[in-house]
Task: inverse folding
């Protein structure tokens, strides 16, 4: 049985974070990945495509702004979840992975609003003992109120 | 004119065009700045040792971004990545730098994938793939899946 303070995390909503998708940030991201796709680098080319301008690589939402807030992994909501579960005796964490649903492209110049919610917290018995899985979903909406993407990140607490 | 990947070009078992990558300490610095992940696990020996990984490791999120590029390079401008997931299964260590711009000899990572499903949805034609990152020994250190929507010939 999970302690009540842990199960009560489910449904908790974090503060809305506003992200600016800057052209330079897109290119720094693409450069670090080693991605020479002209959709990110060549404005004339990008304008000639169905996208009509420079877009961001899928999974890039304008971070970083304030680094703790910008990435779902380091959000205040995530820190809170980690603290509560650590207090329950599961202090060590492993990144369990991420899943995206991508709806519309992110464009240079977009302003995105990101809001995170604790989707689930559950316990699993494994060979190496009990573990808690926490899943936080962050949804991104652009300045035209279009749903851009949903990211679900899993942390494993041991 | 770039090549267009059509839905009809693929079958279950078709290979995603492999993408080679080299992680270096320099790239990890770039990624930290570009992503905002300033966890010292990725640049400080003493801290990495205290965390039980021996020395600084490659950011999992960088490997995720490699896998996104694997898919977007493969599908081209006419294809759309609709769903993506990945899980981190193993640690990777970057190559050190030989000089200001070139890495030392060492490991090359390969991003790879394979089509697992081909189907027609409500509005689009889809393909699902398994995707993964192999280290220099051929071990899979990151594994995931992707769903892409592709143009059709008709």
Result:
């Amino acid at each position: 049985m999970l302690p009540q303070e842990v199960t009560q995390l489910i449904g908790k909503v974090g503060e809305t974070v506003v992200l600016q998708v800057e052209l330079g940030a897109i290119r720094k991201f693409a450069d670090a990945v080693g991605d020479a796709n002209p959709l990110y680098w060549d404005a004339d080319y990008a304008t000639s495509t169905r996208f009509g301008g420079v877009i961001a690589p899928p999974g890039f939402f304008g971070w970083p702004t304030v680094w703790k807030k910008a990435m779902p992994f380091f959000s205040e909501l995530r820190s809170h979840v980690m603290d509560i579960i650590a207090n329950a005796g599961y202090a060590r964490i492993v990144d369990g992975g991420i899943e995206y649903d991508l709806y519309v492209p992110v464009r240079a110049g977009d302003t995105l609003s990101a809001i995170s919610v604790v989707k689930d917290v559950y316990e699993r018995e494994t060979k190496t003992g009990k573990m808690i899985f926490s899943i936080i979903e962050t949804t991104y909406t652009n300045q035209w109120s279009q749903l851009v993407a949903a990211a679900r990140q899993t942390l494993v607490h041991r | 004119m770039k090549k267009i990947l059509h839905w009809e070009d693929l079958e279950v078992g078709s290979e995603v065009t492999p993408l080679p990558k080299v992680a270096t300490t320099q790239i990890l610095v770039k990624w930290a700045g570009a992503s905002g992940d300033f966890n010292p696990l990725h640049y400080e020996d003493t801290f990495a040792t205290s965390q039980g990984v021996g020395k600084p490791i490659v950011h999992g999120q960088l490997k995720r971004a490699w896998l996104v590029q694997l898919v977007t390079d493969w599908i081209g401008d006419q294809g759309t990545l609709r769903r993506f997931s990945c899980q981190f299964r193993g640690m990777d260590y970057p190559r050190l730098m030989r000089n200001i711009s070139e890495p030392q000899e060492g490991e090359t990572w390969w991003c790879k994938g394979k089509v697992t499903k081909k189907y027609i949805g409500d509005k689009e034609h889809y393909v699902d793939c398994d995707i993964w990152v192999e280290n220099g020994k051929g071990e899979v250190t990151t594994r995931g899946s992707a769903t892409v929507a592709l143009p059709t010939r008709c």
